[in-house]
Protein backbone atom coordinates (compact mmCIF):
# COMPACT_ATOMS: atom_id res chain seq x y z
CA UNK A 1 0.00 0.00 0.00
CA UNK A 2 1.41 3.35 -1.00
CA UNK A 3 1.41 6.29 1.41
CA UNK A 4 -0.01 8.45 -1.35
CA UNK A 5 -1.53 7.69 -4.70
CA UNK A 6 -3.43 9.38 -7.48
CA UNK A 7 -6.95 8.05 -7.97
CA UNK A 8 -7.40 8.10 -11.76
CA UNK A 9 -11.15 7.48 -11.59
CA UNK A 10 -11.84 10.42 -9.32
CA UNK A 11 -8.88 12.54 -10.50
CA UNK A 12 -7.65 13.33 -7.01
CA UNK A 13 -4.91 12.47 -4.55
CA UNK A 14 -5.42 9.89 -1.81
CA UNK A 15 -3.18 9.86 1.26
CA UNK A 16 -3.01 7.88 4.49
CA UNK A 17 -3.76 10.21 7.41
CA UNK A 18 -0.57 9.65 9.41
CA UNK A 19 -1.84 11.73 12.33
CA UNK A 20 -4.21 8.91 13.28
CA UNK A 21 -1.85 5.94 13.14
CA UNK A 22 -1.50 3.46 14.71
CA UNK A 23 -5.00 3.79 16.21
CA UNK A 24 -6.85 4.29 12.96
CA UNK A 25 -6.01 3.60 9.32
CA UNK A 26 -7.81 6.20 7.25
CA UNK A 27 -7.37 7.42 3.71
CA UNK A 28 -8.28 11.01 2.88
CA UNK A 29 -9.00 12.47 -0.57
CA UNK A 30 -7.49 15.77 -1.76
CA UNK A 31 -8.92 17.46 -4.83
CA UNK A 32 -7.23 20.86 -4.60
CA UNK A 33 -3.63 21.99 -4.25
CA UNK A 34 -4.62 24.16 -1.29
CA UNK A 35 -5.82 21.06 0.58
CA UNK A 36 -2.62 19.21 -0.33
CA UNK A 37 -0.52 22.12 0.98
CA UNK A 38 -2.51 22.17 4.22
CA UNK A 39 -2.08 18.39 4.58
CA UNK A 40 1.71 18.80 4.31
CA UNK A 41 1.70 21.58 6.93
CA UNK A 42 -0.57 19.58 9.26
CA UNK A 43 1.53 16.43 8.75
CA UNK A 44 -1.23 14.24 7.34
CA UNK A 45 1.70 13.32 5.10
CA UNK A 46 5.26 13.75 6.36
CA UNK A 47 8.78 12.54 5.66
CA UNK A 48 10.88 14.28 3.02
CA UNK A 49 10.30 11.98 0.01
CA UNK A 50 6.58 11.62 0.77
CA UNK A 51 6.26 15.40 0.95
CA UNK A 52 7.95 15.64 -2.45
CA UNK A 53 5.57 13.05 -3.91
CA UNK A 54 2.54 14.85 -2.48
CA UNK A 55 3.76 18.19 -3.85
CA UNK A 56 4.07 16.72 -7.36
CA UNK A 57 0.49 15.47 -7.23
CA UNK A 58 -0.52 18.79 -5.66
CA UNK A 59 0.55 20.45 -8.91
CA UNK A 60 -1.53 17.92 -10.84
CA UNK A 61 -4.54 18.91 -8.71
CA UNK A 62 -3.75 22.56 -9.45
CA UNK A 63 -3.62 21.83 -13.18
CA UNK A 64 -7.07 20.24 -13.17
CA UNK A 65 -8.43 23.08 -10.98
CA UNK A 66 -7.17 25.70 -13.42
CA UNK A 67 -9.59 27.44 -15.79
CA UNK A 68 -6.72 28.38 -18.09
CA UNK A 69 -7.32 28.31 -21.82
CA UNK A 70 -3.71 28.84 -22.86
CA UNK A 71 -0.42 27.25 -21.79
CA UNK A 72 0.74 30.66 -20.55
CA UNK A 73 -2.30 30.97 -18.27
CA UNK A 74 -1.85 27.44 -17.04
CA UNK A 75 1.80 28.12 -16.28
CA UNK A 76 0.84 31.24 -14.34
CA UNK A 77 -1.72 29.28 -12.28
CA UNK A 78 0.77 26.51 -11.59
CA UNK A 79 3.39 28.96 -10.42
CA UNK A 80 0.91 30.31 -7.89
CA UNK A 81 0.15 26.76 -6.76
CA UNK A 82 3.87 25.91 -6.56
CA UNK A 83 4.43 28.90 -4.31
CA UNK A 84 1.67 27.82 -1.92
CA UNK A 85 2.83 24.18 -1.92
CA UNK A 86 6.48 25.22 -1.55
CA UNK A 87 5.71 27.15 1.61
CA UNK A 88 3.92 24.25 3.32
CA UNK A 89 7.07 23.12 5.16
CA UNK A 90 10.52 24.67 4.89
CA UNK A 91 13.19 22.08 5.73
CA UNK A 92 12.71 19.12 3.35
CA UNK A 93 14.29 20.11 0.04
CA UNK A 94 12.35 17.34 -1.73
CA UNK A 95 9.35 19.67 -1.74
CA UNK A 96 11.03 22.35 -3.89
CA UNK A 97 12.85 19.66 -5.88
CA UNK A 98 9.59 17.96 -6.92
CA UNK A 99 7.85 21.24 -7.79
CA UNK A 100 10.79 22.40 -9.92
CA UNK A 101 11.07 19.05 -11.63
CA UNK A 102 7.41 18.92 -12.65
CA UNK A 103 7.32 22.53 -13.87
CA UNK A 104 10.63 22.31 -15.75
CA UNK A 105 9.66 19.03 -17.39
CA UNK A 106 6.30 20.25 -18.62
CA UNK A 107 7.16 23.89 -19.31
CA UNK A 108 10.66 23.92 -20.70
CA UNK A 109 11.91 27.53 -20.88
CA UNK A 110 11.65 27.45 -24.70
CA UNK A 111 7.87 27.08 -24.58
CA UNK A 112 7.08 29.76 -22.06
CA UNK A 113 10.03 32.11 -22.21
CA UNK A 114 10.85 35.12 -24.35
CA UNK A 115 13.18 35.26 -27.36
CA UNK A 116 14.00 33.17 -30.38
CA UNK A 117 12.33 29.80 -30.62
CA UNK A 118 9.31 30.86 -28.61
CA UNK A 119 6.14 29.51 -30.17
CA UNK A 120 3.55 32.06 -31.21
CA UNK A 121 0.23 32.31 -29.38
CA UNK A 122 -1.55 30.99 -32.45
CA UNK A 123 0.54 27.84 -32.38
CA UNK A 124 -0.03 27.04 -28.75
CA UNK A 125 -3.40 28.50 -27.85
CA UNK A 126 -5.87 25.67 -27.67
CA UNK A 127 -7.83 23.89 -25.03
CA UNK A 128 -6.57 20.59 -26.29
CA UNK A 129 -3.03 21.66 -25.66
CA UNK A 130 -3.88 22.85 -22.15
CA UNK A 131 -5.50 19.50 -21.43
CA UNK A 132 -2.46 17.64 -22.70
CA UNK A 133 -0.21 19.80 -20.49
CA UNK A 134 -2.40 18.93 -17.48
CA UNK A 135 -1.97 15.26 -18.32
CA UNK A 136 1.78 15.80 -18.68
CA UNK A 137 1.89 17.33 -15.18
CA UNK A 138 0.12 14.28 -13.79
CA UNK A 139 2.43 11.95 -15.72
CA UNK A 140 5.52 13.62 -14.29
CA UNK A 141 4.08 13.56 -10.74
CA UNK A 142 3.35 9.87 -11.17
CA UNK A 143 6.89 9.31 -12.46
CA UNK A 144 8.32 10.96 -9.33
CA UNK A 145 6.18 8.69 -7.14
CA UNK A 146 7.13 5.52 -9.02
CA UNK A 147 10.81 6.42 -9.10
CA UNK A 148 10.76 7.06 -5.37
CA UNK A 149 9.85 3.44 -4.68
CA UNK A 150 12.49 2.13 -7.06
CA UNK A 151 15.16 4.50 -5.66
CA UNK A 152 14.34 3.46 -2.09
CA UNK A 153 14.83 -0.18 -2.97
CA UNK A 154 18.19 0.55 -4.60
CA UNK A 155 19.26 2.58 -1.57
CA UNK A 156 18.12 -0.19 0.72
CA UNK A 157 20.26 -2.74 -1.09
CA UNK A 158 23.36 -0.53 -0.73
CA UNK A 159 22.58 0.18 2.92
CA UNK A 160 21.80 -3.43 3.80
CA UNK A 161 25.40 -4.34 2.97
CA UNK A 162 26.42 -2.29 6.01
CA UNK A 163 24.17 -4.28 8.34
CA UNK A 164 25.54 -7.44 9.88
CA UNK A 165 23.74 -10.48 11.18
CA UNK A 166 23.03 -9.92 14.89
CA UNK A 167 23.15 -6.11 14.77
CA UNK A 168 21.13 -4.00 17.16
CA UNK A 169 20.28 -0.74 15.39
CA UNK A 170 19.00 2.56 16.76
CA UNK A 171 16.59 4.24 14.37
CA UNK A 172 15.32 7.81 14.72
CA UNK A 173 11.90 9.21 13.70
CA UNK A 174 10.01 7.41 10.93
CA UNK A 175 11.81 6.82 7.66
CA UNK A 176 9.76 3.89 6.42
CA UNK A 177 7.13 3.39 3.75
CA UNK A 178 5.10 6.10 5.46
CA UNK A 179 7.85 8.70 5.08
CA UNK A 180 8.21 7.93 1.38
CA UNK A 181 5.89 6.77 -1.37
CA UNK A 182 6.76 3.21 -0.37
CA UNK A 183 9.54 1.09 1.18
CA UNK A 184 11.48 3.80 3.02
CA UNK A 185 15.00 5.14 3.42
CA UNK A 186 16.75 4.19 6.71
CA UNK A 187 13.89 1.88 7.68
CA UNK A 188 13.99 0.54 4.12
CA UNK A 189 17.60 -0.52 4.78
CA UNK A 190 16.48 -2.33 7.93
CA UNK A 191 13.60 -3.93 6.04
CA UNK A 192 15.85 -5.18 3.26
CA UNK A 193 18.46 -6.52 5.71
CA UNK A 194 15.64 -8.39 7.47
CA UNK A 195 14.38 -9.81 4.17
CA UNK A 196 17.91 -10.97 3.42
CA UNK A 197 17.61 -13.15 6.50
CA UNK A 198 19.78 -11.06 8.80
CA UNK A 199 18.83 -11.35 12.43
CA UNK A 200 18.48 -7.76 13.58
CA UNK A 201 16.88 -5.90 16.46
CA UNK A 202 15.73 -2.29 16.28
CA UNK A 203 15.73 0.19 19.14
CA UNK A 204 13.07 2.68 18.08
CA UNK A 205 13.60 6.23 19.33
CA UNK A 206 10.12 7.36 20.29
CA UNK A 207 10.93 10.78 18.74
CA UNK A 208 9.31 13.49 20.78
CA UNK A 209 7.26 15.56 20.42
CA UNK A 210 5.15 13.98 17.64
CA UNK A 211 6.29 10.43 18.38
CA UNK A 212 6.85 9.34 14.79
CA UNK A 213 9.04 6.51 16.14
CA UNK A 214 6.68 5.15 18.78
CA UNK A 215 3.62 5.53 16.55
CA UNK A 216 4.70 5.01 12.96
CA UNK A 217 8.02 3.15 12.96
CA UNK A 218 6.79 0.67 15.57
CA UNK A 219 3.59 0.18 13.53
CA UNK A 220 5.60 -0.55 10.40
CA UNK A 221 8.04 -2.90 12.15
CA UNK A 222 5.09 -4.91 13.49
CA UNK A 223 3.87 -5.45 9.95
CA UNK A 224 7.29 -6.52 8.68
CA UNK A 225 7.81 -8.89 11.60
CA UNK A 226 11.05 -7.18 12.65
CA UNK A 227 11.84 -7.41 16.38
CA UNK A 228 12.02 -4.02 18.14
CA UNK A 229 11.77 -2.15 21.40
CA UNK A 230 10.67 1.44 21.73
CA UNK A 231 13.07 3.55 23.78
CA UNK A 232 12.66 7.08 25.06
CA UNK A 233 14.91 9.43 23.10
CA UNK A 234 17.08 10.11 26.11
CA UNK A 235 17.84 6.38 26.56
CA UNK A 236 19.83 6.17 23.31
CA UNK A 237 23.05 7.32 25.00
CA UNK A 238 22.69 4.60 27.63
CA UNK A 239 22.36 1.83 25.05
CA UNK A 240 25.29 3.17 23.03
CA UNK A 241 27.51 3.64 26.09
CA UNK A 242 26.84 0.12 27.33
CA UNK A 243 27.87 -1.46 24.03
CA UNK A 244 24.41 -2.72 23.11
CA UNK A 245 24.22 -1.02 19.71
CA UNK A 246 26.21 -1.70 16.53
CA UNK A 247 24.66 0.81 14.09
CA UNK A 248 22.70 4.06 14.13
CA UNK A 249 20.56 4.92 11.09
CA UNK A 250 18.39 7.89 10.22
CA UNK A 251 17.10 9.71 7.15
CA UNK A 252 17.44 13.39 6.28
CA UNK A 253 15.30 16.25 5.15
CA UNK A 254 18.19 18.05 3.53
CA UNK A 255 21.89 17.34 3.16
CA UNK A 256 24.20 20.30 2.47
CA UNK A 257 27.13 20.14 0.04
CA UNK A 258 29.60 19.52 2.87
CA UNK A 259 27.58 16.56 4.22
CA UNK A 260 25.88 18.34 7.12
CA UNK A 261 22.56 16.56 7.67
CA UNK A 262 19.30 18.24 8.68
CA UNK A 263 16.98 15.65 10.16
CA UNK A 264 14.36 15.19 12.85
CA UNK A 265 15.14 16.94 16.12
CA UNK A 266 17.31 14.73 18.29
CA UNK A 267 19.44 13.34 15.48
CA UNK A 268 22.38 15.56 16.50
CA UNK A 269 22.41 14.27 20.09
CA UNK A 270 22.11 10.70 18.81
CA UNK A 271 25.01 11.13 16.37
CA UNK A 272 27.14 12.71 19.11
CA UNK A 273 26.56 9.77 21.42
CA UNK A 274 27.24 7.35 18.57
CA UNK A 275 30.56 9.03 17.76
CA UNK A 276 31.60 9.12 21.42
CA UNK A 277 31.13 5.35 21.50
CA UNK A 278 32.64 4.62 18.07
CA UNK A 279 29.31 3.36 16.70
CA UNK A 280 28.84 4.13 12.97
CA UNK A 281 25.98 6.53 12.17
CA UNK A 282 24.53 6.48 8.64
CA UNK A 283 22.12 8.88 6.98
CA UNK A 284 20.07 7.23 4.22
CA UNK A 285 18.83 9.65 1.55
CA UNK A 286 17.76 9.76 -2.08
CA UNK A 287 19.94 12.17 -4.06
CA UNK A 288 16.85 14.44 -4.32
CA UNK A 289 17.45 15.23 -0.62
CA UNK A 290 21.00 16.49 -1.30
CA UNK A 291 21.07 20.25 -1.79
CA UNK A 292 24.38 21.14 -3.39
CA UNK A 293 23.35 24.82 -3.56
CA UNK A 294 23.89 25.13 0.20
CA UNK A 295 27.56 24.96 1.20
CA UNK A 296 26.89 23.96 4.83
CA UNK A 297 24.06 23.00 7.16
CA UNK A 298 24.08 26.53 8.60
CA UNK A 299 22.04 27.67 5.60
CA UNK A 300 19.33 24.99 5.94
CA UNK A 301 16.04 26.54 7.11
CA UNK A 302 14.87 24.86 10.31
CA UNK A 303 11.13 24.66 10.85
CA UNK A 304 9.88 25.68 14.28
CA UNK A 305 6.42 24.30 14.91
CA UNK A 306 3.76 25.37 17.36
CA UNK A 307 4.48 24.96 21.07
CA UNK A 308 1.25 23.02 21.54
CA UNK A 309 2.97 19.93 20.08
CA UNK A 310 5.39 19.90 23.02
CA UNK A 311 2.86 20.94 25.66
CA UNK A 312 0.17 18.44 24.58
CA UNK A 313 1.75 15.66 26.66
CA UNK A 314 -0.65 14.20 29.20
CA UNK A 315 -0.23 11.60 31.94
CA UNK A 316 -3.29 9.85 33.34
CA UNK A 317 -5.43 12.35 31.44
CA UNK A 318 -3.74 15.38 32.99
CA UNK A 319 -1.51 17.85 31.17
CA UNK A 320 2.07 17.33 32.31
CA UNK A 321 3.25 20.94 32.18
CA UNK A 322 1.78 23.90 34.11
CA UNK A 323 -1.19 25.55 32.43
CA UNK A 324 0.79 28.68 31.52
CA UNK A 325 3.98 26.92 30.40
CA UNK A 326 5.57 27.96 27.14
CA UNK A 327 7.71 25.75 24.92
CA UNK A 328 10.14 25.84 21.99
CA UNK A 329 9.64 23.31 19.23
CA UNK A 330 12.33 23.13 16.52
CA UNK A 331 11.29 20.21 14.29
CA UNK A 332 14.80 19.51 12.93
CA UNK A 333 18.44 19.90 13.84
CA UNK A 334 21.66 19.82 11.86
CA UNK A 335 24.20 17.07 12.48
CA UNK A 336 27.67 18.24 11.45
CA UNK A 337 29.23 16.06 8.76
CA UNK A 338 32.11 15.08 11.07
CA UNK A 339 29.61 12.95 13.04
CA UNK A 340 28.25 11.16 9.97
CA UNK A 341 30.04 7.93 9.04
CA UNK A 342 28.48 7.61 5.61
CA UNK A 343 25.55 8.80 3.51
CA UNK A 344 23.68 5.99 1.75
CA UNK A 345 22.16 7.02 -1.59
CA UNK A 346 20.60 5.12 -4.49
CA UNK A 347 23.97 5.47 -6.23
CA UNK A 348 25.98 3.88 -3.43
CA UNK A 349 27.38 4.76 -0.02
CA UNK A 350 29.18 8.11 0.10
CA UNK A 351 32.03 8.52 2.56
CA UNK A 352 34.04 11.61 3.60
CA UNK A 353 35.24 13.91 2.24
CA UNK A 354 31.58 14.60 1.51
CA UNK A 355 32.20 17.92 -0.25
CA UNK A 356 34.21 16.02 -2.84
CA UNK A 357 32.15 12.82 -3.02
CA UNK A 358 28.53 14.00 -2.74
CA UNK A 359 28.53 15.81 -6.13
CA UNK A 360 29.71 12.58 -7.79
CA UNK A 361 26.83 10.62 -6.23
CA UNK A 362 24.33 13.26 -7.32
CA UNK A 363 25.69 13.38 -10.88
CA UNK A 364 25.59 9.63 -11.40
CA UNK A 365 21.83 9.98 -10.85
CA UNK A 366 20.97 9.80 -14.55
O1 LIG B 1 8.63 16.01 10.68
P1 LIG B 1 8.69 14.77 9.84
O2 LIG B 1 7.97 13.62 10.42
O3 LIG B 1 8.29 15.07 8.41
O4 LIG B 1 10.22 14.41 9.81
C1 LIG B 1 10.65 13.30 9.08
C2 LIG B 1 12.09 13.07 9.23
O5 LIG B 1 12.79 13.77 9.91
C3 LIG B 1 12.68 11.95 8.44
O6 LIG B 1 13.77 11.42 9.12
C4 LIG B 1 13.14 12.50 7.09
O7 LIG B 1 12.11 13.13 6.42
C5 LIG B 1 13.70 11.43 6.23
S1 LIG B 1 12.50 10.20 5.97
C6 LIG B 1 12.65 9.40 4.63
Topology diagram in text:
Layout: E1 4-7, E2 12-16, E3 27-30, H1 33-42, H2 48-65, H3 71-86, H4 93-106, H5 109-112, H6 121-124, H7 127-160, E4 168-171, H8 186-195, E5 201-205, H9 212-224, E6 228-231, H10 236-241, E7 247-250, E8 254-256, E9 261-264, H11 267-276, E10 281-284, E11 290-291, H12 308-311, E12 314-315, E13 318-319, E14 332-335, E15 342-345, E16 348-350, H13 354-363
Parallel strand pairs: 4-5, 4-7, 5-6, 7-10, 8-11, 10-15
Antiparallel strand pairs: 1-2, 2-3, 8-9, 9-14, 12-13, 15-16
Helix pairs in contact: 1-2, 1-3, 2-3, 2-4, 2-7, 3-4, 4-7, 7-8
The structure holds 5-S-methyl-1-O-phosphono-5-thio-D-ribulose (MRU).
5-S-methyl-1-O-phosphono-5-thio-D-ribulose (MRU) is lined by residues 46-49, 92, 173, 175, 179-180, 185, 212, 250-253, 263-264, 331.
Tell me what the structure shows:
The chain is of the alpha/beta class. The protein has two domains: 4-152, Four Helix Bundle (Hemerythrin (Met), subunit A) (Up-down Bundle), CATH 1.20.120; 153-363, Translation initiation factor eif-2b, domain 2 (Rossmann fold, 3-Layer(aba) Sandwich). Helix content is 42%, strand content 16%. It has 13 helices and 16 strands. It has helices at residues 33-42, 48-65, 71-86, 93-106, 109-112, 121-124, 127-160, 186-195, 212-224, 236-241, 267-276, 308-311, 354-363; strands spanning 4-7, 12-16, 27-30, 168-171, 201-205, 228-231, 247-250, 254-256, 261-264, 281-284, 290-291, 314-315, 318-319, 332-335, 342-345, 348-350. The strands form four sheets. It has a seven-stranded mixed beta sheet, with helices on both faces. A hairpin with a 4-residue loop joins β1 (4-7) and β2. α2 (48-65) runs antiparallel to α3 (71-86) and α2 (48-65) runs antiparallel to α7 (127-160). The longest helix is centred in the middle third of the chain and has 34 residues, at 127-160. The chain is globular. The protein starts with a strand and ends with a helix. The structure holds 5-S-methyl-1-O-phosphono-5-thio-D-ribulose (MRU). 5-S-methyl-1-O-phosphono-5-thio-D-ribulose is lined by residues 46-49, 92, 173, 175, 179-180, 185, 212, 250-253, 263-264, 331.
